[in-house]
Amino acid sequence: MKIDEKIRARIENLREKITRYDFLYYVKGEPEISDREYDRMYAELKTLEEEHPEYITADSPTRRVGGEPLKEFKTVKHAVPMLSLENTYSREEVAEWEKRIRKKVPLKEGFVIEEKLDGVSISVTYEKGKLILAASRGNGISGDDITGNILTQRVIPLVLRTDNPPDSVEIRGEMFLKISELRRINEVREKNGEPVFANPRNTCAGTLKLLDPAEVSERRLSAYFYGFGRWDGTSPPLTQMKLLEIYEEWGLPVNSTYSQCASIEEVFESYERLADERADRDYDIDGTVVKVNLFREHDVLGATSRNPRWAIAYKFESKKATTTVREIIFSVGRTGIITPVAKLEPVGIGGVTVSSATLHNFDQVRKLGVSAGDRVEVERGGDVIPKIVSVIKASGSHRPVVPPGKCPACGHTVKKDINGVFYRCSNIRCPAQLKQKILHYASIDAMNIEGLGENIAQQLVERGFVRNISDLYSLDMEKLLSLDLFAEKKARKLLDAVRNGRNCALSNFIYALGIQNVGKHTAKILARRFGSVNGLMNAGRAALMDIDEIGPIVSESIMDFFESDTNQDEIKELLKNGVRPVHQEGGRKLSGLKFVFTGTMKNFTRKAAAARIEALGGAESSSVTADTDYLVAGENPGSKLDKAKEKGIKIINEEEFTELAGK
Ligand code: IVH
Q: In terms of pTM, does the model score above 0.85?
């Protein structure tokens, strides 16, 4: 075999393997190889494809990543409208529906009952078995082209596993987020000081609406398919049961909880079973969908302008109860968000006693108009914290709930986030946030204090050994040995880790401070731009806003953080304790230098020059100020040249710049 053919064969082999493992992992839920092995194969395929772009195909698993962010979605018209379902909670109404349709069709193949997934409906078009388009439901007539986002989700096959695919088939189903995946996403968000998402449905909908596929790819959505729109080139199956079987054969994810029911009595039995099993699911369902099995009967029954007559959503009673609000308190979350919580007269809902309910945020409180003494309706959904749905009867003495000016845990001033509806305590020393702050400070991308985990952080806070992060540096052998499960060796190791961690990269230290909206990436940018802790602490709003990648929300969070005296004191305390953040990146010869360009450059674009400067530790800016170090003047320079002369700033030409920055 020639070398080229060998490479091509290897590429094909890798593609087949990865596609199969995706199927096993995401569709079947039965992984066969380790993540590491998978990553290795994926990396090999990517490299081979980069070296041999002539072998890249539209169905390669590498196509799932890398889509560019969009400005807006294109609109697509659905070939067959995406309708919605008639809803009911009542058995009588389902029985009436059955009677009504039995007059028109013999119900020869009975019904199929499926779970009604609480997600977002999508349509995915495959041409000759290859995925070419994915669309959201939109208004039912047309929706958004969300192909780039859907491609990132490995649960959606790029190619159907069949030798005889239809010329074109539009497959419909539901995208949703597993409850466990929501939990995972929220854990990461908590760590980054971002507000957590309230429920899987909205998170899923929000994710599919993101314009940047790279962001979508960081979340793992799930999907189940159950219907079709257009079907050209082969004959569609005759029944819903057969459709689901074929989808499974094709490697599409199908919810296996469906069943065929010969009579409406059997439908009711299955409904009860699904209702019982609901709590065991890792995803939210809000009821069932009962469908006529035989497609020929669908055609006879037809549809109203909004709903098909061949199906009905038979929903579960939501778990609600009424009770009285005792008082409304404020609780400080681990990231400083202050949440109003209603303390309730205990009430049983679906076998669980509920005595408090979250009110989410102050806007929500205002909308509900709730205050102490009111009779309220409380709902407990799948896995979420109970919430107040409505006020049934006001107590009469309405006392509006005012957001606290001071943090109930530490008394620090509370501020409203500019990006949302949250009130937040940004005191680095707030005890309510302390444990989480310690864990963040010690984490691998921050100060990397090995051995400082959940259990130890908890004990340190409980015993009062650590009241501020800087107290970590006053820990000693005696204190550590008094903790549970601590022997000398372990204590010594932890003390060493704390001490050795003090010589750290500036970017790690900035990240470790846990400033809201400042993740690892932003911390690096800040370190590069300001070069020292003091540089950052004294940077004004203008200098922050001057950085391309930093917008008003992030700079506001940074300003906010450093404006607080306690935060400033805490940083001083850390430095006093020997923390030495330094900014040093190899070969960064323009470190801390600021450049401004004017006029036309012959050999490079301004963007390329800016990137070069940044890579070498310097910064590029658009206007000449007192702290500009160099003005690079090209052909036909503008007024910046005069300004630079006036301020006595060093002026260099293009050649001199190239010499300085290299190529
Ligand atoms: S069949 C004509 N089956 O419920 C629509 N829909 O209110 C036929 N849904 O937009 C839809 N699970 O997003 C069907 N097993 C299921 C479903 C399901 C959830 C959603 C779907 C649809 C909405 C209808």
A: no
